[in-house]
Amino acid sequence: MTLRLAVTGLKGQVVSALIERAPKDVEITALGRPQLDLGLRNAVLANLRHAGCDAIVNAAAYTAVDQAESEPEVAMRVNGEGAGHVAEAAAELKVPLLHLSTDYVFEGTLDRPYREDDPTGPTGAYGRSKLAGERKIAAVHGDHVILRTAWVYSPFGANFVKTMLRLGETREEVGVVADQTGNPTNAIDIADALLVLARRLVADPSPELRGVFHLSGAGEASWADLAEATFAIAERAGRRPVRVRRITTAEYPTQARRPANSRLDNARLWARYGVALPHWRESLDKCVHRLLQTPA
C-alpha cells in the first residue's frame, strides 16, 4: 500500500533527502514557496488539503540563526505561527504530523545530553520561534511527533561539512570552534527515520508513539572535531591536508548565542520506535566521499 507524504519545503536538506530516499511505495509531495508560505494560513490549509496525504512532514523552516536576531518577527511568523498552521491542516485532515525542531530550544548549559522532558530555555530568536512552534502544534493537534535534531549536514544545500570542504580547497588552516559540543546528524539518516516513523504513525494510533522525541546522530563531537574528521576523510581520498586551529566561542563572535551543549539524548526514540541513527563518523564518511565525487 502506497504511503502518501506531504512535505513542506522544496530545497531543504531533509526534503531533498526524503525525495531521494523514498522507496517506490512512498509518494512524496513537496510543497513550498511561493505556492505554500508557512506564514499564510489560508495558503497552508489549501495546499495541504489538495495534497491528499496520509501524513504531513513539516520540514520547512526559517533557519538563519543569526539573521533571526535582527528580524525575530519573521522567524516567529514562519517557525511559530507557520507550524501552527500546518498543525491546523493536519488536524482538519485527521492525519499524523511529523515536525522537525531543534536543540536551540534549550539553553545549552547542561552537563549531559538533553532529554525531552528537560526544561527549555532558548537564548535567541531562532530558538524561541522553534519552541513557539512546538507549543502551537501540541495545542492544536494531538496526533503529532516533534523531532528535535541538531547539527544537520548532508550532500544537499548549505551546511558545515560542505563549507569545510570548500575552505579546504584554498586554505592550509581553518579556525574552528572547539568549545561547543553536539551530535552531527546526516539529513539522509533523518529522512530514513522519518519514513519509518511515518509508517508507524499511520498504522498505529498508540499514544506512546506521539509527543516529543530527540533524533540525532550517535556519538558526540565539537565543531573542531567535525572539521578535523571531514578533512581527514578528504585527505585519505586524495585532497591536500588541512589543519584545524581550535578556537573558542569568544574568538568567533556571532549575533546569536550558540548552545555550548547541543547534545541530545535519543533513548526515548529507541525505546518507543526501535530507531537509532548511525554514528556520526560513519555517516560523515559516506557524505564526504559522495561530495568529493560530485562536481561543485
Topology:
Blueprint: E1 3-8, H1 13-21, E2 26-31, H2 41-51, E3 55-58, H3 72-93, E4 97-102, H4 125-140, E5 144-149, E6 152-153, H5 160-168, E7 173-177, E8 181-182, E9 185-186, H6 187-203, E10 211-214, E11 221-222, H7 223-236, E12 243-247, H8 267-273, H9 280-293
Parallel strand pairs: 1-2, 1-3, 3-4, 4-5, 5-10, 6-9, 7-12
Antiparallel strand pairs: 8-11
Helix pairs in contact: 1-6, 2-3, 3-4, 5-7, 7-9
Overall average residue pLDDT? 96
| Structural class computed from helices and strand pairing | alpha/beta
Number of strands: 12
β-strand percent reads 15-25%
CATH fold label:
Rossmann fold
- CATH-scheme architecture: 3-Layer(aba) Sandwich
| SS field, number of helical segments | 9
According to CATH, the homologous superfamily is NAD(P)-binding Rossmann-like Domain
Please identify the oligomeric state: single chain
Order of helices and strands: EHEHEHEHEEHEEEHEEHEHH
Strand order of the largest sheet: 2-1-3-4-5-10
The CATH top-level class label? Alpha Beta
The percent range for helix content is: 40-55%
| Whole-angstrom Rg | 19 Å
- Broad shape: globular
Low-confidence stretches: none
How widely separated are the two ends? 38 Å
How many domains? 1
